[in-house]
Every structure is written in C-alpha cells, then in structure tokens.
Amino acid sequence: MMRNWLSLAAAVSTLAISACSSAPALAPVVAAAPVPAVAATPAYDLLIRGGTIYDGSGGAPYVGDVAVRGDRIVYAGPTQPATAARTVDARGLAVAPGFINMLSWSNESLLVDPRGQSELRQGVTLEVMGEGWSMGPLNDAMKALSVKQQGDIKYPIEWTTLGDYLKFVERKGTSLNIASFVGATTVRQHELGERDIDPNSAQLDRMRALVRQAMEEGAMGVGSSLIYPPATFAETDELVALVTEAGKCGGMYISHMRSEGDRLVESVDELIDISRRSGAPAEIYHLKQAGRANWGKLDQVIAHVEAARAAGLHITADMYTYTAGGTGVAASMPPWVQDGGTAAMLKRLKNPAIVARIKREMGKPGTNWENLYFHAGPDGIRLASLAEPTLKPLIGKTIGEIAKLRQVSPEQAVIDITLADEGRAGAIYFLMSEDNVRRETAIPWVSFGSDAEASAREGVFLKSSTHPRAYGNFARFLGKYARDEKTVPLPEAIRRLSALPAANLGLSDRGKLAPGMAADVVLFDPATIADHATFDQPMQYATGVRDVFVNGVQVLDGGEPTGATPGRFVKGPGWTGWPDGGACRNGGKRPAVSP
Q: In the predicted model, is pLDDT for residue 258 greater than 60?
C-alpha cells in the first residue's frame, strides 16, 4: 500500500512540473516568513529527578522522580519522560518528606530571622509550637508582662489571639511552615493569673471557650507543661475539661508531664487518664527518665503506653536525642516560690527566712515537685542564657563553678542568679542516660522535637548560648543513631520524622511524598548527614542536607538558605475555614486535607 501512495505522489509531481514549464512567466514569489516554533508548556514547575525516594511510609526506597506543580506534589514514582520549568538532579541523594519538629520554641526567633537556619539546615519544614505557653490568647496584662520579661529578642506584640499570631508570622514571612497548640498555661493565666488557685465554674467555662476559640482559629490541640508554675497548680480535672474541648474539635493533648523523674510512671498514667476521659489523642513531650535513680523506669513507661494503645487509646511520644535538658534556673526551686508570678518570686527571694526554707527543699528529693537541682547537682547545671548584660560572662559556667567563684553555696548561687536576671536565666541540666536515649530512638510511636528555637550563628543569637539540640537534633537521629548505631532502618527513621507526626496532628496532606501532598521536600546525603553541635560549642550547623523545598519553593540550595519565605500557617482540624466548617462544628471529625 505504501508503494502505491509513493507512485501516485510521483505522478502528481511530474504533471505539476510540466504545467509550470508551459505556463507564462509569473512574478517572483516572496517566501513567507518562517513561523516560529511554539515551545511546549512544561508539564511540571519542578522535577526532582533520579533520587532515592523515601516516601515517608516506612516502606522500601526506590530510585525515581518527584514532580511538583505549584505547591503540590503531582507525581512521585519511577523515572519517566517529562518536562519541567526546572529540573533538580537528585542522583545519589535521599529524597524525603520535610521533617516535622513536634516541639519548637521558635515563637520569637522566627520574628527576627524568618529563615529558621538551625532547623532548616537539618531538613525541618514544619515548626509546631505551644508547650504549655502559646503566643495567644493574651489579655492586656499578659502582653505587658511578656514585653517586660523579653530577653535578647525584643519585639512589639501586635496580636491578641493565637490565630492572630500565626497569621502575623505568615504575613511577615517565614521559610518554615508553622503551627501551634494552645497553651494550657496561657489559658489559665488569662483567667486566673499566676496564683495557686482552682478555677470556679464560671472561670473554667471561660477557659474552655478560649480553647474552643483557638481550635476554631487552627490550633492543633492543647499543650501543657506541668512542672512549671502556674501550670503545676492545675488539677487533673481542669486539664480534662480543657482537653475535652480540644477533642470535640478533632485536636490532641500533648504534655510536658507533671514529672519525668521520681513520679514518672504516675505522670504517664495521668496523661493516659486525661486522654481516656477527654476522648482526645495524647502525646508525651520529650520522653525521658530524669535523674539516675529513675533511669530504670523506661520499661514501665513503655509497658503502660503500649497497654493503653492496645486498649484503643492513641498515645504517642516525642523526644530529643541528648542526655541533658534545658529550662530556667528558677526551675531549680520548688514551685511554690513562683506562686503569683515573677514579681512575687523575686520578693520571696529577698526574705531570709523564706530563702532558708528554699535551700532546705532544694537539697532533698521533691515529694510533690520535680527537683531538677537535686537530680542534676550543681555541677550538672550549666548556664546557657542570661538577659542581664553584666551576667553574660557567666554563660557556660556551672552552678558549682559560680558558687566557688562567688564563695557561696550552690543553692545561694541559684537564688542570686535568679534575682539578678529577674527570673529569665536559662540553663542546661544533665539528667538522662545515653542507653535510654538510644533505646527510645527505636520505639515506633516516638517522633522528634528539638525543644529549642530555630537559631543562627549571627545577630541577636550570639548574645547567649543555647542547647545543641537547636542545631543537631534531627541530623543526630539520622546520622548517629539510624546510620552509625543502626537503632532503626533509614526508611523507618524518615517515617518517624514525617508521616508519624503528621498523622498524630491530623495533617492528611503533609508527611509523605505522594500526589496531592504539600510539596515539602528535603534532599540529603544519608552517608554524610551529621550533627556538629556540642554542649561546649552548641552553635554549629548540621551538614548533609543539600536542598529543602517548602510548599514547592526552594528555601535551602546547596546547603545555604535562599531567603525565600513560602512558609504557611498550617491549620488544625477545628479551623472554621474548612469546607465543612471544621471539626468543632462537625462532631470532631478531622478534615480530609490541610492548607
């Protein structure tokens, strides 16, 4: 059939030439201008090609591509022919969902450095805040007190509610996504101040209303920090009431428990009880066993959590990968010292009779409070942050060293520093066992949180020190524990940094590499990723993460921040902007997607 068509074409051509030779001459024909070729529209905005894809599920990795259109992943799978406005060569690198920091204190740091460098350089793309204290709801008195107590970072408070704050940060610009729990402490302080009192029914109703408002604005649930006043004054029933309100809106409860040491197991049981009574999932903040006498309690904790999970409760935990915690120097003293707030505490610390009582209580195990001073000892408490400029030379010294330098008792050194820095001093407390940290990294229901701000080796951050977890927590898990010590396979490690926390938070479109998911993507080298921050030199960036994308926009390129600020306020399940009005108005049902 092809030959017949060719013969016919040749005949037509011969006739045309013959006709032209016998026809009169015609005017020269001007050739038409060539029509420019129309370039094909690229199929994708971004194509991450040839990397080893760890999709967040914990399943086996594979070599392939991730394609992005706008802020969404539209393809994740084996390499196939495709065009893109930009192609990134990921050969030899792991391609994973962006990591979620379940315990961030970047509330203030992102206001002065939106890049969030110490977190970004580890592959973190979502900062979840709200451990007890949140940036709203605030009343006028709370705003004034917050401004007065600010440390190195100074800023005006231009918001009132938690939702207002999160929208403020988004408008201002942030390289990282942000989310927050509403703080149980903040809600309590809003209605009761900082006194050791219980709410009456009217006050409790107002506290519940504040939780519901925060949930409707997009909070993830209720966060508590029960070793610190005034949170430590809250009874279990009060917490159940607040968490029940969050549970009605699809939210969860997350807690720095009442004790992580002498009453650790009892505190785990309280968290489980709050979950059972409220109907909300619950998570243990920074799972640990504080104090050598309590290192043997990990097995009991695991047994109690797994029994609750087997009974149908959704109980999880998060952790950081270090043997020291970090908190205020004032936490070395019994909670009653802070009854009524900082001003009341400073007044008590000037009363010799009260000071004598404080010293006695610091020197023995706390019967109804978490005595961090007793468990760490004066040589195990190292100053990390001080607001008063004249005290800055003490940063890096232990309480024991300062006591010898000043020729006072260690207990008096704690009191003197608290007075001089007006309750703002921060310290690192060496409390935990490396063996337990290693074991915890292998627990399948444990995710990760830095319990620190997103810091930087520049600007205002150089005025104080910090905990190495601010610079190394996530890289340390992937490098030291997953790769070097093999406590967990890499696919499972990535699940624990992405899909697990996303599922706990109810975020159905983050935490995995799959079509329809938000394009939060990290490219790193599994063979070289490492933390470099130490307790002596904490401000050392992690290495091994090459590129990071947040909502489809590159925020880390070749290990350096781009300065782009595509981060968003990631809303929780109760947000009223959902198509169905949110879980608060939908029987607590979590939405199918999250913005």
A: yes
